[in-house]
Amino acid sequence: MASFGKFLKRLLLVLILLVVAFHVLVAGLLLIWKTQPINNSMFMLSHRLTGGTVTQTWADYDAIAKSAKQAAIVSEDSTFSQHSGFDFKGIKAARKKNEETGKASAGGSTITQQLAKNLFLTSHRSYARKGEEAIITVMIETLWDKQRILAAYLNVAEFGNGIYGIDAAAHHYFDKSAANLNRDESALLISMLTNPKYYEDNQGDRRLRNKQSIVKKRMKNAVLP
What we know:
Blueprint: H1 2-33, H2 42-49, H3 66-76, H4 88-101, H5 111-120, H6 127-143, H7 146-156, E1 158-160, E2 163-164, H8 166-174, H9 183-191, H10 196-200, H11 206-218
Antiparallel strand pairs: 1-2
Helix pairs in contact: 1-6, 3-9, 5-6, 5-7, 9-11
């Protein structure tokens, strides 16, 4: 029993050291990525490891059309410029909706939370992953300003099979740079984020086009950082 107890203590120590090392790595990458282009993420890495090809080109904040930034905010996180990483009203509303429908369809995640997941975690849902997501969200909000967060989010989001980032998406779908996207194009691309692989081949989907219309109408309400 004594030896088993020692084994458990050693195992716990190893796990703690691994967690600490992971967060040190995250902090180091965030400091580097505060000023340097981000050309990789956990989602991109997973795509490459499964034999896929990744297309992504970094676009600075000022090289992304205003309409694309407005669309991202009104679609994904309307209070992005005001909160510190978490939209507690949105989380409460999502929880209420899930309880009413009996399905975990509404998430309430902010742009910063989604960025934390895309950069360092996976799509696997668990309390442990949500805990890590919360920690990394706080780190991102502490180390980066809002413009950097929004730019990073738009540069690593998936817009199709192996298509990552708003600039790659703009070139793929419209043969133009992210800076030259118009309101219709921006609204469409951001509306695709809920199911990018499906919408890549189903551009005329009624749900997609309805959301595009809604996002476009709400753009003027976006508060940019």
